[in-house]
Each structure stands twice: as C-alpha cells, then as structure tokens.
Amino acid sequence: MLHDLALTTPLLILLFAGLFTLVVDPFLPAGDQSRRFWGPFNAAMSAAAIVAAALMWKSGHHEMQTVAFGAHLSASTYSLFFVSLVSLVGMMTHLSSPKYMLEQGVGYGEYFAMVSFATFGMATMVSAESVITLFISLEIMSMAIYVLVAFKRTSIASVEAGMKYFIMGSVASALLLYGMAFLYGLSGGTTFVEIQRALVTAKPDQAVWLGLAVLLTLAAFLFKVAAVPFHMWAPDAYEGAPTTVTGFMASGVKVAAFGALLKILYAALAGQGMDDLHLPVAAILSTVALVTMTVGNLLALVQKNVKRMLAYSAIAHAGYLLLGTVASTVDPVLGAPYAVPGGAVPFYLIGYSLASLAGFAALASLGKNGEELTTEHQLAGLGRRYPFAGAVLSLAMLSLAGVPPTLGFFGKLELLREVLAVDNAKYLPHAIILVLNSVVSAYYYLRVTVYVYMRPEPKVEREYVTEPSLTWAMGLAAAAILAIGVMPGKAINVATLSAHAVRTGIATKNLVHLRGPDAPAKVAEVAAAPQEAPAAPVAEPAVIPQP
Amino acid sequence: MPTELLVFYVLAAGVVLSTAAMLLPPMGRNPIHSAIALIVSFFFLAGIYALLSAHLLAAVQIIVYAGAVMVLFTFVIMLLNLTPDQIREPRITATTLIGSGLGLFVFGKLLSALALASNGAKSVDLNDGTHATFGSVTEVGRMLYTTFLVPFELVSVLLLVAAVGAVVLAKRSLKYKDRPKKEAPAAHAVAATDHDTHAAH
Questions:
Q1: pLDDT tier for residue A187 given thresholds of 50, 70 and 90
Q2: What is the dihedral of CA B159, B164, B169, B173, to 10 degrees?
Q3: Other Cβ atoms within 10 Å of A213 Cβ, number
Q4: B164 contacts A146? CB cut-off 8 A
Q5: In Å, how far is A81's CA from the nearest CA of chain B?
Q6: CA atoms of A41 and B149, how far apart (whole Å)
Q7: How far does the CA of residue A111 sit from the closest CA of chain B (Å)?
C-alpha cells in the first residue's frame, strides 16, 4: 500500500496543491491582490511534481515494479515522461496567470485550484492502466477545464465558449464510455493488460463489435484533440476562454489526450500492429490526420484574431501528431508482431506545448483592464512598446512554424523521419502533404511577426500586463524552445525511451506467454537488469489472470 | 415458485402501465405528470431488481434515479415552464421514424432472445450457492474498496471539482464595469453573501 502511494507521488503532489489552495483560500485576507500568491505557490507544487517524477525516473524503477493499486495506475517510464510534461504545462499556466486574471476581474483562488485539479486529471490520465481510471481522470480534467473556460463570467464570449465546450465534451465522453463498455464486454476486464490479452486471442465473430468499440473510442479521442471532423468546438472555445486558459487547453489537453491515445492504441487495442484490429485503424488515423492538418491550416490562413488563428493552428498540429501515432516500431522486448510508438509524438509534444505556452503567455500580456487585444492590428507596436513579449511571441510563432534552430523544427524533422521509416516509406505521400502544410502555415505564423515588428504603432497609448511571474513563464518557455532546439539529442532519447515503454512490465509478462519459446528468456533478461535499484516487491495484482 | 412469479407479474405490469401512462395522453400531455409516472415506473423497476437478488442495485435505483435524476428532470421542466399551448402536437418526422425503427429492432431482438431462452438455453439460478452474495452490498463494497479503490477515490475528486466548479460559476459575485443602475440593488444582495467583497465594503 505504501509502495503504491510512493509510486503515485507526482499525482499526489498535484492533488494536494489543488486541495490546499481550495481549503486555505477563504482564510486569506480579503481583496483579490492576496490571491496572486496562489500562482507562484501552485507553480512550485507543479515543479515539485516534475522533480518527483524525474527522481523516480533516475532511480531506475523498472517496468516490472511500476504498476500501482491493482493495475489501475502506473509509474512507468512512459507515464513519468507525460506526467512531467503536463506538470510543466500546469506550472507555466500558474506562472502566467495571476496578474492577467486579476486584470480580467476574476483573480480568484479557485482558478488556481481548478488548474491544479485539471493538471492532476491529465497526469492521472496518462498514468492510467485501466479504462475506468482513464475515463474518470479524463472527466476530472475536462470538468475543471469547462469551468476554467467559462471562468470570466462577465464576458458573454467566455460563458458561450464554456457552454459549447461542455456540451460537445459531454458527447465525446459518452462516446468514450460507450466504446469502453464494448471493450469490457469483449474482454471481461477493465485493465489494458486484460483487454490486450483478450483482443490478441479474439475470435473472428467478435470482429464487428471490436471494430465498433475501437471506432467509438477513437472518435472520443479525436474529439478531445480537435481533429476534423470533430473540431467545430475548438475555435469558439479557444477564442472565448481567458488567454491563459487557452494556452493551458491548447497544450495540456493535447499532451494528455495524445499520451492516453498512444497508450490505449498500443497497450490495449492494437496488440500486434495496427491492422490486427479487423479495422484499418492506421488508414483511418492517417487519413484523418491529412484532412485535419489541411483544414486547420487553410482555415487558419483567413483568421484575423490571433487566438482564433492559434486554435486552427492547434487543429493543424493535432493533424501532424495524428500522423505520428501511426509511426510504430517493433516492441524492443516482445519482438516482431508487437508494436510500440516511436519517440516522435512525445518529442513533438514537448516542442508544441512549449511554443503554445510561450505564445499564449505573451498574448496574456495584452489583457490589461479586462480587455482582450488579440486581433492582428492590435498587436502592432508590441515589438517596440513591450519588446520582451514581442520577442517571445515571435519566437513561439517561429517554433510553431518549424523554423530552425527552434524546437518546432526538430519536432517536425523527427516526426517526418519516423513516418517515413514505416514500411519502406509507405506514408511518403502523407509526409509530402505534411511538408506542404508546414509551408502554408509559415505564412500565417510569420504574419503575426510582421504585425508585431513592421506595422506602424497605433496612436492610442496602450498598457500591458507586466509582472515577474509572467516574465518568468515567457522566459522559461522561450529559453527551453531555444535550448532544446540547439541540443535536441537528449530530449529525443528521453522521448523515445518513454514511448517504447508504453506497455508496463505486467503487460509484457502477460503477453510473452502468447509468443514463441524464446520469449520467456527475453523477459527474464529484462527482469534481471534493474537489480541495482532496490525496489520493494509489489504484489501481483489480483485482477490479472495467470495464464 | 408461484409467489415469486406472482410478485414478478405484479411488478412487471406496474412498469408497463406506468411507462404507458408517462407517454400517452392524458398524463403524457403534462410534463410534470409524465415525470411522476416515471418515478412510479422506477419504483416498480427497483422491485424487479430486488427480486433478482440485486439488492444494492434496487436501492441505488431508488436513491439515484427516483431521487437525484428526478430532481434534475423536475428542475428542467420547471425552468422551461411550458404552458399547454406551447406543447406541440406530436408529428411524424424522420427522427421519430428512425427512433421507432431502432426501438422495434431492439424489441424484436429481445423477443428472439426470450424465445431462445425458453427453448432450453442455459440459464443461471441466482439462488444457488455460488451466487449467494451476487449483487449484495457486501460484495459491491468489497470490490469498491479493493480492486476498484483508485477509480473510487478518483470519483470523489471528480465530484469535488464539479461541485466547486458549479459554485464558482454560479455564485461568485461579479464586478461589472458598466452595470446598469437599476440592477445595482440585486448585485449588492449577491455581493453581500460573498465574504471577501463583503469585507472589502
């Protein structure tokens, strides 16, 4: 029990941050100014969660010992990576929020509690090892974000955005629950391990139901990442939400949804490659990816509001990432028919979320006195009057466009490399369309830079939101974009390691019995490796049937 | 088991009759009457669950459906506040056709399953030894606090987030910049319930 708790330390830190904020907030002195304290506090807690995850990664807990609480949660290399990434997103959001929310007239303590709860939901979602945990944590995340989107209640746009997102999100949740109910019906189990075991040995007459289950589950995730044709809610929700919340949604939800999607695709559904599902999942995903990136980019071209433009750009990036999900490699432990995702998607997510956070943090500085000066013309003069925000915004746009030496460039490079490595460049046409799309996207990203630096300043005197923590958020994100962009090797390694660990040790142990005679030897070999790391033995969860 | 069968027939007839009353005129014309008929239907359904040895499910059916869900329904009906002349005459549209088609399909499936079952397909006796604790509070509680401990605890976080979120969105005092004068007293009443704005005054 204690060992299980220790494995979930990063999650518990995030949960504690939210609860503490909620409980102590009423006792703070009256007035909104004192609420600004919660931003740095919650950011520090998120940083503590990152440190905890990094320490657990360092201590080399092996896959075999990382499943906690009867196979509902895991602290594998895979989940630790994604937990750190969502905590980073949470940290940046906390840092960039306090003054901005105060200027918008809604600088309440509950805001920070909600962001922490949403971060907790995301972290649990990417650590989930069963469909029940996955669904409930997805709901925790979504519920907190619905509230955050509608947080600025004085603004009709914010309330409308929250309402739209809530209704559409509920439909997606219903789809996901429906798909998971079918999965449970087919496999008789709720954990990914049981589902994968059952699906690998599924009978042909279950194909229809399996296809239906996979389709429903995929649709729900496509909704969450705002892929075409489930993208309608995104522009309104992104534009209406407070800017810092938009940044949080654009980066955090995408990281969590892709983390969970990769996990459920590889560790639960597609046991032996994508085409083993009696449904052309790889073809569906790659086609949706192409449509999504093209539609997102074309619609982004004509937007006048930068927040709305970034919403369509987020749709386009969801397309790039979806193409990355089909780029699988052979499982390094289990061997041939078993597939694991490559490191491109996790690596791309680092670059995308940092650039989004930097961009939206810079846009948040335009939210003085409850206004949202986010149309292109209102950006004019930013480069001279608030040079730091202008520079960070331009850097974020360059990274999103994929200009070297920013992180965005290496993300796209790695993505293309892995997509082309599949089956003798089977996805060559897709890759070419991706490159063409990137060229198109450069136009609207660079247009922002043109407005920031090359348009005449407006006559009106304009004030900007400035505060140390917002500067820190912008500075940290920009520094990371440049630093990892200059030296991407280490980050690519970490992303690849984590992606290859998408199956936990228990899953591997369970599946290996379904394979050839030399397979147990391979597992024994892997199991022997981590012995220098003294880890308390964890009891085999009772829910997993021994083969 | 003639007594059990008798009880079942009474309960089943209750479900069918109350559901019919919910949908058909004269009760079906009034939303509140429909809602009351639905509660009655839920109670009969709970009786059938109890007959199937699913005692917890029977209790949950009454607490959650007849209690919580019905309060929600009545709230929605109350907020919509439909007058009789606003309720349209039922029309046959594509949606109703598709809906009834699907309903008939499920009904047919159920009938065929029933026919299969009466032709001697394997049935489970819920009263034999192996299923003695099936559906009991003990059994469900044990599952919740052992195998499904994490999801159970996560649900409590989810409920907390939902409750706090609802309060934040619905109850927080607002500082409108350009609030019209006549709304000011109402705004003050709301603000007075809020501790920090109150203290600020």
A1: confident
A2: 160
A3: 26
A4: no
A5: 21
A6: 30
A7: 9
- A-B contacts at Cβ under 8 angstroms: 90
| pLDDT tens, residue by residue, A68-97 | 777 788 888 899 999 999 999 999 999 999
For residue A331, the cross-strand partners are A335
Q: Are residues B165 and A15, on separate chains, in Cβ contact within 8 Å?
A: no
Length reported for chain B:
201
Q: Which of residues 21 through 80 in chain B touch A, CB cutoff 8 A?
A: none
The pLDDT of residue A518: 52
Of B146, B154, B174, the CB nearest to A124: B154
pLDDT tens readout for residues A38-53: 999 999 999 999 999 9
Taking the CA of residue A454 and the nearest CA in chain B, the distance in Å comes to: 34
pTM of the model: 0.86
Which has the closest alpha carbon to A220: A186, A255, A159, A264? Answer: A264
What DSSP line would sit under B112-125, residue for residue? Answer: HHHHHHHTT-----
| pLDDT mean across residues, chain A | 85
Tokens 């159970």 sit on residue: B152
B178 at A interface, C-beta within 8 A: no
Distance between CA atoms of B52 and B131, rounded to whole angstroms? 11
Task: State whether B169 and A69 contact (CB < 8 Å).
Answer: no
Query: Tens of pLDDT along A95-130?
Result: 999 999 888 888 888 999 999 999 999 999 999 989
Which residues does A382 contact at the CB level (< 8 Å), separation at least 6? A366, A389, A390, A393, A451, A452, A464
Question: For residue A310, which of A363, A367, A270 has the smallest C-alpha distance?
Answer: A363
Residue A173: C-alpha distances to residues A167, A168, B115 (Å): 10, 9, 36
- A299: alpha, beta or left, given left = phi > 0 and alpha = psi -120 to 50? alpha
Q: Which residues of B touch A102 (CB under 8 A)?
A: none
- Polymer length in residues for chain A: 547
- Count CB-CB contacts under 10 A for residue A467: 18
The beta-carbon neighbor of B172 closest among A108, A113, A162 is A108
Distance of CA A437 to the CA centre of its chain: 22
Residues of B in contact with A72 (CB under 8 A): 148-151
